[in-house]
């Protein structure tokens, strides 16, 4: 039986029975989408009068009853978009948010919208983000909650400035800061209108009449007040530290602004640092007739000119080995003897072993700079995962290196400028050469000339890149503004434990990030953004910042007009 009907035979008999049972079916105009009343008519499929049917092939066709509708089988061309728009307008999609806000309910669900960048046309990524949020909002609305969802846009930052400058197609050095800001604002406003129109067109339920924009003067003023509160609590400070630096964008970047290229190719080198003064406990193991060198490995040869020390793991075992090919003596970790010998395509004969703490007090000669001394220092960041167990340390180009230098008062001079070029302080051979390309090549040739290069090889590994230009970044020390994470770490961790993360592993990532980074760089060397409310001296390295300046109405007005 079909739909509770007894078969009275094929053809009109069955239709008559169906019509007598169902009668004229009507749908409410509101739920009928187009606001019109429709009659449901039941018809048979491929009736007996069809000229193509034969007695055998149409034997059962008249027993299949389907509703008859005026809806077309498919819509062609622009008909589909026109029909969707008509449905949205007549069914009141745009009124749904205000309607549900007026309901008298006891619970309210608030979804905070992480804003998209106002840097281009809407795309499938926007659709995925907004529609998933809309599903969550509608789910809670259908469960009886009042939904609060205010959409917004991130209108500042590198993504927008980069897009504007690329579209202008001019040398950025020829544009003033005010010109760039004006063009960036106009570009962001146009992008917002495009995206907002698309989001509403997709039927996303939101408070579209009350959106927030980060370039709104009131929004910027609140940001400056928060900065003032953080500064007064000692959470904001200026310091000279190594930060991620993008030569392609000429600005500092936060860790969240990095993308990692797993197929990046670097030129790694094995370099020897001749032992200048052996540690007191190893003097008997290293005679004047057999000079010994500390053996290090690095994937960034361009940082060797900035070397200030060699670090070791105090609790690890180290060895003095003799190379069977050259007869030279080297110091390296005992666990790394076999893999390093294999990499250098030679064999090592162990002459002595000792604990890492026995290296204390020793010094080495710099492989490139005559008369420069590189001390042997203990460090907690040294591992045996890769390399030789001895780590080349350049404080201006490494976070852990900087920490070691701070503990032992080592120089932290940076030999690289904002464009990623060696400065004059690096010497005439390296000056004005890009450190990641030509500069690396020159450093390797200099190591060969001093006979301190044991081997060079290419290595494929994961390397950080600028999230917008997709080009490699480097770690470079410079004066920046930071947020002190250490003072709020404990409170932040306790707060995170009260949050439900989906998936749960995301909580571990947040905790690891807090443990890994004691500070957060918040300054950028760009012009499209909320300026840090600080006055710098024109010629001296001095700045003015206090409560009066931070809360000055004229400063707030100046900042929001930039």
UniProtKB/TrEMBL annotation:
Q: Start and end of every Aminoacyl-tRNA synthetase class Ia domain?
A: 99-545
Organism domain of life: Eukaryota
Write down the EC number: 6.1.1.5
List, in alphabetical order, the Gene Ontology terms for molecular function in this entry. aminoacyl-tRNA deacylase activity; ATP binding; isoleucine-tRNA ligase activity
Q: Which UniProt keywords apply?
A: Aminoacyl-tRNA synthetase, ATP-binding, Ligase, Nucleotide-binding, Protein biosynthesis
Q: Which PROSITE patterns match?
A: AA_TRNA_LIGASE_I
Q: Which GO terms describe its biological process?
A: isoleucyl-tRNA aminoacylation
Q: Does the keyword Nucleotide-binding apply?
A: yes
Q: What Gene3D superfamilies does the record tag this protein with?
A: HUPs, Valyl/Leucyl/Isoleucyl-tRNA synthetase, editing domain
Write down the top EC class of this protein.
ligase
Q: According to its UniProt record, which protein family does this protein belong to?
A: Belongs to the class-I aminoacyl-tRNA synthetase family.
Protein name per UniProt: isoleucine--tRNA ligase
Q: State the encoding gene.
A: Iars2
């Amino acid at each position: 039986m079909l739909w509770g009907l007894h078969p009275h035979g094929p053809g009109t008999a069955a239709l008559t029975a169906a019509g007598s049972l169902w009668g004229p079916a009507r749908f409410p105009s509101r739920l009928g989408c187009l606001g019109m009343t429709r009659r449901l008519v039941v018809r048979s499929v491929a009736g007996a009068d069809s000229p193509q049917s034969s007695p055998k092939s149409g034997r059962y066709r008249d027993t299949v009853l389907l509703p008859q509708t005026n809806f077309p089988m498919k819509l062609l061309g622009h008909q589909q978009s026109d029909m969707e728009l008509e449905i949205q307008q007549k069914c009141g999609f745009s009124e749904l948010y205000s309607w549900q806000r007026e309901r008298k309910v006891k619970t309210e669900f608030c979804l905070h919208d992480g804003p998209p960048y106002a840097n281009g046309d809407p795309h499938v990524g926007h659709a995925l983000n907004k529609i998933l949020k809309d599903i969550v909002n509608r789910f809670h609305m259908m469960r009886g909650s009042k939904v609060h969802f205010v959409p917004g846009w991130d209108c500042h930052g590198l993504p927008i400035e980069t897009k504007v400058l690329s579209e202008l197609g001019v040398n950025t050095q020829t544009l003033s800061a005010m010109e760039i800001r004006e063009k960036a604002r106009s570009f962001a406003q146009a992008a917002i209108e495009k995206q907002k129109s698309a989001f509403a067109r997709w039927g996303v339920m939101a408070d579209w009449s009350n959106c927030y924009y980060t370039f709104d003067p009131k929004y910027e003023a609140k940001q400056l007040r928060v900065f003032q509160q953080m500064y007064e609590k000692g959470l904001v400070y200026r310091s000279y530290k190594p930060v991620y630096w993008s030569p392609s964008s000429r600005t500092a970047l936060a860790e969240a602004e990095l993308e990692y290229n797993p197929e990046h190719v670097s030129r790694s080198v094995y370099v020897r640092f001749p032992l200048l003064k052996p540690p007191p406990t190893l003097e008997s193991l290293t005679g004047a007739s057999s000079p010994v060198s500390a053996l290090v490995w690095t994937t960034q040869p361009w940082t060797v000119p900035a070397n200030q020390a060699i670090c070791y793991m105090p609790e690890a075992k180290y060895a003095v080995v003799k190379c069977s090919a050259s007869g030279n003596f080297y110091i390296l970790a005992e666990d790394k003897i076999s893999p390093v010998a294999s990499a250098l395509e030679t064999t090592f004969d162990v002459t002595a072993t000792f604990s890492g703490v026995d290296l204390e007090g020793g010094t080495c000669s710099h492989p490139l700079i005559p008369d420069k001394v590189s001390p042997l220092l203990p460090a907690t960041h040294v591992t045996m995962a890769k390399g030789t167990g001895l780590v080349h340390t350049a404080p201006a180009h490494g976070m852990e290196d900087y920490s070691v230098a701070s503990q032992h008062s080592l120089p932290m001079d940076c030999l690289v400028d904002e464009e990623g070029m060696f400065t004059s302080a690096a010497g005439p051979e390296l000056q004005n050469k890009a450190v990641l390309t030509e500069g690396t090549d020159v450093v390797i040739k200099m190591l060969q000339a001093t006979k301190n290069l044991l081997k060079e090889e290419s290595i494929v590994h994961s390397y950080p890149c600028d999230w917008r230009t997709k080009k490699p970044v480097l770690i470079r020390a410079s004066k920046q503004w930071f947020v002190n994470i250490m003072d709020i770490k404990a409170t932040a961790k306790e707060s995170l434990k009260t949050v439900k993360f989906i998936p749960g592993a995301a909580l571990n990532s947040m905790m690891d990030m807090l443990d890994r980074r004691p500070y957060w760089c918040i300054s950028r060397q760009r012009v499209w953004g909320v300026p840090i409310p600080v006055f710098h001296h024109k010629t001296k390295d001095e700045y003015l910042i206090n409560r009066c300046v931070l809360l000055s109405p004229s400063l707030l007005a100046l900042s929001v007009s930039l």
